[in-house]
């Protein structure tokens, strides 16, 4: 049966596009963090929507699980197959054409395997902006970012991937193609079906193409760097920034001093620009605020307003970085945080969101409870404070202690998620559930939500073959 399916896949795609050799498969079978390792019957690389549809039909006929994969930069193991060796991994990286850029409609239609950098370059070529910005933009794909509803560094101004999407083309779990591409911003013709697939992490179908929003390019930008004594001051500074900058504020990033210390250690080439200093103590926090405007004079008036508002409230207005190199240097540091954390070694990760006003209470309550249970634990915190989204990672500075900590990771998650839930937050802000958090979702999903998700899954994928064991714990 397996050999028959492999032969059929080879007939459909060509022998070169069906990888069965374990050494060549290896890069597709582990996640970016190296936390999950799976096995697969084959890794296939289709180049068109029709080929994806045929692959799905063949797999369904052979009762074979399908694992969609984009750039394989996801942080929850969603693109890694299980260890049974039964699944076919459908790598979408070769179905990657930009189909259309409509500058006048501020929209772009591209195939799922196009990377964020591809989309940005295509938009840039017609003086438009594709705003989704992540540290892994050279590898993260349009399909992967839709499937995880990725967020990133500019959500405050432009929204999550879901907010950017105007239309989708999807291969459903029975191999039929559903397509509703196009550049409409208003279209109330019944259910908004594309929303089912966005954030579903490949459990309801394979996204093959999408139409996404573009925006005007900003010609003038500035970054404000604030060194603050606590998260309460950071929330107040963000509130002040929102009132002064309003729609011109594109980012608000919070970084704890221990997180910056990791960057200094692991990425020593990432230097702060002149005038900006590393936080003086481990209890301090850096807040990076980005403002973008369409002309320099307007930007200047916004920054004047910021300085006046800060002075009126008796607060520091921070270092204002207006030169491109200085801004680039700060973004290099911000985008390097995940890499620095990876080089430091394994940690217990949380990607949580809270009402912004509750961030100080979360930081205080969670760190007190963790310190009591795990004395001396090091908490690495950074994230998109403007979206209420924190990355909250736990490890010991002494790596020898981390094996013991990992064995107790359920206790750590329990502590963090209890505080998150009590404060009205979410256990999964922007990275999704994957296989990392299925059990925690069972415990923390709002009443009725999982039942509804399962009903939808059963209707679309009655055999449970589409990315099994991801998002919803496997019952098949
Ligand atoms: C350095 C670094 C920084 C990051 N920063 C951020 C950040 O700031 N914000 C953020 O939100 N994320 C961030 N991420 C996480 C990651 O980049 C995103 O989750 C991204 O959306 C994954 O895209 P991908 O193409 O790599 O998808 P993959 O990792 O390949 O897959 C992710 C999930 O989507 C499914 N999938 C992939 N392609 C398709 C498709 N075509 N159709 C259906 N399902 C599909 C997979 O099955 C899997 O469940 C970061 C990751 C790294 C490594």
Explain what this protein looks like in three dimensions.
- The protein has four domains: 2-94, 2-Layer Sandwich (Uridine Diphospho-n-acetylenolpyruvylglucosamine Reductase, domain 2), CATH 3.30.43.10; 98-216, Uridine Diphospho-n-acetylenolpyruvylglucosamine Reductase, domain 3 (2-Layer Sandwich), CATH 3.30.465.10; 220-339, 2-Layer Sandwich (Alpha-Beta Plaits), CATH 3.30.70; 345-441, Alpha-Beta Plaits (2-Layer Sandwich).
- Helix 1 (2-13) packs antiparallel against helix 3 and helix 10 crosses helix 13.
- With 476 residues, the chain is of the alpha+beta class.
- The model has no long low-confidence stretch (mean pLDDT 96).
- The protein has a seven-stranded antiparallel sheet, with helices on both faces. Strands 5-6-10-8-9 form a five-stranded antiparallel sheet. It has a four-stranded mixed sheet with strand order 1-2-4-3.
- The protein is globular.
- Strand 17 and strand 18 form a beta hairpin.
- The two termini are 20 Å apart.
- It has helices at 2-13, 22-25, 49-61, 116-124, 142-147, 155-158, 161-164, 194-197, 231-245, 257-266, 296-312, 324-335, 337-344, 359-373, 402-407, 409-422, 438-444, 449-460; strands spanning 18-19, 42-44, 66-69, 88-91, 98-102, 107-111, 128-129, 165-171, 177-180, 206-213, 215-216, 220-228, 249-256, 285-293, 319-321, 351-353, 378-384, 389-395.
- The structure holds flavin-adenine dinucleotide.
- Flavin-adenine dinucleotide (FAD) is lined by residues 32, 67-75, 78-79, 92, 112, 134-136, 139-141, 143-145, 147-148, 150-152, 201-202, 206-207, 338-339, 430-431, 434, 467, 470.
- The site of flavin-adenine dinucleotide (FAD) has 39 residues, from strand 3, helix 5, strand 10 and helix 13.
């Amino acid at each position: 049966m397996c050999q028959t399916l492999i032969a059929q896949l080879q007939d459909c795609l060509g022998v070169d596009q069906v990888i069965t050799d374990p050494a060549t498969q290896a890069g597709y079978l582990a996640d970016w963090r190296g936390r999950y390792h799976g096995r697969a019957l084959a890794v296939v690389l289709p180049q068109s929507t029709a080929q994806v549809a045929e692959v799905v039909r063949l797999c369904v006929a052979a009762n074979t699980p399908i694992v969609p994969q984009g750039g394989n930069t996801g942080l929850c193991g969603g693109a890694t197959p299980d260890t049974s060796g039964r699944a076919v991994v459908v790598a979408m990286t070769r179905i990657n054409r930009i189909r259309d850029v409509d500058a006048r409609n501020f929209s772009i239609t591209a195939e799922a395997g196009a990377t964020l950098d591809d989309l940005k370059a295509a938009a840039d070529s017609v003086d438009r902006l594709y705003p989704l910005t992540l540290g892994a933009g050279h590898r993260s794909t349009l399909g992967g970012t839709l499937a995880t509803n990725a967020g990133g560094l500019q959500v405050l101004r432009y929204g999550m991937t879901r907010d950017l999407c105007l239309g989708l083309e999807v291969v459903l779990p029975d191999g039929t193609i559903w397509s509703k591409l196009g550049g409409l911003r208003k279209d109330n013709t019944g259910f908004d079906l594309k929303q089912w697939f966005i954030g579903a992490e490949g459990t309801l179908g394979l996204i093959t193409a999408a139409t996404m929003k573009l925006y005007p390019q900003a010609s003038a930008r500035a970054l404000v760097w604030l060194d603050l004594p606590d998260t309460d001051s950071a929330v107040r500074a963000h509130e002040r920034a929102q009132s002064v900058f309003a729609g011109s504020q594109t980012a608000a990033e919070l970084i704890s001093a221990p997180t910056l210390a990791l960057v200094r250690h692991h990425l020593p080439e990432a230097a702060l620009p002149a005038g900006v200093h590393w936080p003086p103590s481990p209890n301090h926090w850096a807040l990076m605020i980005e403002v973008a405007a369409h002309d320099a004079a307007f930007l200047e008036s916004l920054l004047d307003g910021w300085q006046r508002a800060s002075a009126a409230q008796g607060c520091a207005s921070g270092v204002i970085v207006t030169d491109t190199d200085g801004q680039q240097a700060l973004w290099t540091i911000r985008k390097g945080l995940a890499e620095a954390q990876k080089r430091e070694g394994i940690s217990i990760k949380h990607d949580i969101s809270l009402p912004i006003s509750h961030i100080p209470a979360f930081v205080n309550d969670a760190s007190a409870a963790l310190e009591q249970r795990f004395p001396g634990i090091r908490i690495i915190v950074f994230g998109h404070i403007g979206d209420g989204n924190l990355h909250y990672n736990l490890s010991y500075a002494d790596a020898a202690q981390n094996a013991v900590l990992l064995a107790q990771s359920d206790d750590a998650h329990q502590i963090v998620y209890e505080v998150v839930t009590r404060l009205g937050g979410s256990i999964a802000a922007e990275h999704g559930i994957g296989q990392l958090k299925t059990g925690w979702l069972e415990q923390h999903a709002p009443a009725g939500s999982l039942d509804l998700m399962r009903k939808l899954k059963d209707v679309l994928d009655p055999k449970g073959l589409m990315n099994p064991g991801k998002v919803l714990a496997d019952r098949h």
